[in-house]
Amino acid sequence: YNREKQNIEDLYGAQRSQLDNTVNENNIFIAKLDSDIANTQYSSSYKDEIANNDKNIAQYRLDQKVVAKDLASAQNNLKAIKDEIDTNINNHKQNHLKICSHQDVVTQKQSLMQGDTLHSFLLQSEANNELVGAVNNIKKVISPSLMNKKNLLPQWLNENIDEQNHSNDLSVFGLSINTSNLPESKLETHAEIAKEIMDREKSIQDLKEVIVGLDKDIEKLEKQQQLAKALIADLRVASAKVESAIDDAEANGQYLNIQAEQDKEQRVLVMRKERERLQGVVKELRSNLSDLLASKELDVKTAKKRATELKQNEIEKQRVNQKS
Fold first, then answer.
1. Which pLDDT tens digit goes with each residue over 102-153?
2. Which pairs from 7-13 meet CB under 8 Å and 24+ separation?
3. How many CA atoms lie within 13 A of 235 on its CB side?
4. Which terminus of the chain is more solvent-facing, meaning fewer CB atoms within 10 Å of its CB: N or C?
5. What pTM value is reported for the model?
C-alpha cells in the first residue's frame, strides 16, 4: 500500500505542480495587464501629433502678438501722419488768412496812391508849398476825437473878426477854431506807403512759398497715409488669418485628443478582455486542480481499500491452511 500510495503521490504531484505553475504564469500575466491598464497612455503617434499641434498653436500665438504689435504701431503711425496733415492744413489756412490780410492792406494802400481818396488828395496837395499849411490844419480837424477837444476857441466868422489876430484859426463853412493847441496827425508819405506795399508783397510771396511747401508736404503725407492705411489693412488680414489658424489648430487639438482617447480606450478594452480570458483560464485550472486532488484522494482510498482486502484475504488463507 505504501508503495502504491507513493506512486499515486508522485503521479498527482507532478500534475499538480504543472497546474500550479500554469496558474502562477497566468496570474503574472493578469497582474501585468492590470498594470498596463492602469498606466495606459496615448499612443506615441497621437502624442507626437498632439505635441506638434500644440507647438503650432504656440507659434501662432507668438505670430498673433507680433501682428498685434505691428498693427498698434501702424495705427499710431497713421494717427501721427493724420495729426501732421491736420497741422499742415491748419498752417495752410492760417498762412492763407495772412496773405488775405496783407493783400487787403496792399489794396488799401494802393488806393491811397490812385488819387480817388481824401488821403491821396491831401498827399498830392502837400506837394504844393502853398497848401502845406492848409493840409496840416485839415489833418488836425479830421480826427474823430476832435469833438472832445478843449481850448479850440470856436466862433463863427464875420466882418468884425480881425483876421490878423486869428491867423492860427481854421474856418470850415464859416466856423472858426483855433488849431494851435491840436497835435498834428501823422499822414503816411508816398515813400512810406510804397515801402509798406513792397514789404507786404514780399511777405505775401514768402507766405505763398510756404504754402507751396506745405502743399508738397501734405501731398507727401497723404501718400504716406495711404501706405499706412494699406499696411493696416494687410495687418488686419494677417491678424484674421492667424486667428483662423489658431481656431483651426485648437479644433484639431480637440479632435486629436478625442481620437487618442478612443484609441486608448480601445486598447484598454482589448487588455481587459484578455484579462477576463486569463481569469477564466485560471478558474478552470483551479477547478482542474480541485478535481485532481479529489481524484488523488479517491485513488489513495481505493489503494488502501485494496491493500486492506488483500491483507484480509491473506489472513483468511493462513487460517484455512492452519485448519487443514
1. 999 888 777 766 655 656 666 676 777 777 777 777 666 666 555 456 666 7
2. 8/296, 8/299, 8/300, 8/303, 9/296, 12/292, 12/293, 12/295, 12/296, 12/299
3. 19
4. C
5. 0.60
